[in-house]
Design a protein that fits this description.
Blueprint: H1 2-17, E1 19-20, E2 26-27, E3 29-33, E4 43-47, E5 54-59, H2 68-78, E6 87-92, H3 97-105, E7 112-118, H4 125-130, E8 137-139, E9 142-149, E10 159-169, E11 176-178, E12 184-190, E13 202-204, H5 213-220, H6 227-232, E14 249-256, E15 261-267
Parallel strand pairs: 5-6, 6-7
Antiparallel strand pairs: 1-2, 3-4, 4-5, 7-8, 9-10, 10-11, 12-13, 12-14, 14-15
Amino acid sequence: SGATARDRDWRDELLRTGIRGRSGQRIDFTRVEPLPAMRWLQADAETKEAVPQRVVVSFGPEHAPLEQRQVELAIEEAGRLVPKPKMIVFAAFQFDPEAAQDIDELNWPGVTLLKAQMNADLLTEDLKKKRSSNESFWLIGQPDIEVQHIKDGEDKGKVRIAVNGFDYYNTRNGKIESGGTEKIAMWMLDHDYDGRSLFPRQVFFPMAGDDEGWGKLAKNLRAEIDPDLIEAYRGTVSLPFGVTRKGQRAAVKIIDDRGIESLRVVDLE
């Protein structure tokens, strides 16, 4: 019952379905077993490949985001394991932005840290039996973004954010590769992120057609909407904004065409 039964079900599902990457790639496992004497790591696995790799898994909570503290303590536990794992997978229904940033940015030589989105159907047995997809775990890409400082023109001194796409983990060669912008359904920018909650100040729909997103609103409010702004809000470069305080940070949240969310926080100085 409780967490024990939940973790067992998720381990079984991970062994059955593996973790889906982009373009049909997949991490498959020959075994996924409980990891005794560990609180923050719930599974010990081995990849199905010519040279198997040891993988440990930390599952997030059912009804809350996976938080920064769990990331820190899971990594601490992984550091005590012998032999050292080659991969740590954090699997969750939601990720706290700071936790996601820690996973993306931690540099541990010889160890790869990955985020996997869990299918919400796993929350209930009824939905699990009726789910339309057999994909229960998806690799989440990190937003590839660039902070551009404007040095001339009427917006001189301001900043804009350019989204170059997603960085994805390629399951075939073990490298991080850029995924481009063509699969971004929506992205949001909070250019004064407070570290607790994201407040979207600019919202973009790059995949939207003329009759979708801001374009649909523009047709309904033809006299009220600037057509140049409508076109800008279909793009992947933000409108210029000012940096008003020391230590100001921006948060970019991207939702891809599968509905999977990813967030990146950057310093603006």
